[in-house]
Amino acid sequence: MENDVLMFYKSLASVAVMSLLGALMLSLAVQWVQKLRVPFWKAYSTVFLASAVNLLFGFIVTWTVGAHVRFQDGAIGLVLITLPIGFFIQSVIVWAVIAIPFGRACLVSLAMIGVGLGFGSIVLLLASLLETFFRA
Questions:
Q1: Do residues 16 and 48 lie in contact, with contact meaning Cβ atoms separated by under 8 Å?
Q2: What is the pLDDT of residue 75?
């Protein structure tokens, strides 16, 4: 139990740092979907709040469901449970904080996933190229 609490606080610190990148992604997504400029700190607080709520939700699900299922057996099931609910939580928080229609908030969340996948793909590609370059 004590390790879980420590891991939660470490994860919350990670959320605070990663929300900086998330705020940039949210700003880009809102500007693309809604044609609205969101101040950085408003975007940061929105992403931080959504991430913290999703983190708490994930810990609750892991404690309740994970206590009954071995991690290897239940990992895919936990992801399938938490992913759509996390998407909904993020969309609701974007809708409430930025004050855009809920359908647009869902599109913003979807666009953030797209931007994140694109950014992650570029980072992986660059890491692969750098590894190939320095290995030779």
A1: yes
A2: 63
pLDDT at position 69 is 59
Q: Please, are residues 25 and 112 in contact by the beta-carbon 8 Å criterion?
A: yes
- Residue ranges covered by each domain of the chain: 2-135
Range with lowest mean pLDDT among 27-41, 42-56, 67-81, 103-117: 67-81
Can you read off the two tokens belonging to residue 25? 């992604």
Residue that is written with structure tokens 């983190």 in the block:
55
Q: How many CB atoms lie within 10 A of CB 55?
A: 16
Instruction: State the Cα–Cα distance between residues 60 and 93, nearest whole angstrom.
Output: 19
Q: Tell me how far the alpha carbon of residue 111 is from its chain's centroid.
A: 12
Sign of the alpha-carbon torsion through 22, 33, 49, 45: positive
What CA–CA distance (Å, rounded) separates 32 from 50? 20
Q: What angle do CA 26, 86, 37 make, to 5 degrees?
A: 15
Identify the CA nearest to 61 among candidates 90, 94, 83: 83
Q: What is the pTM of this model?
A: 0.76
pLDDT digits (tens, 9 = 90+) for 59-97: 787 777 766 655 555 566 677 778 888 899 999 999 999
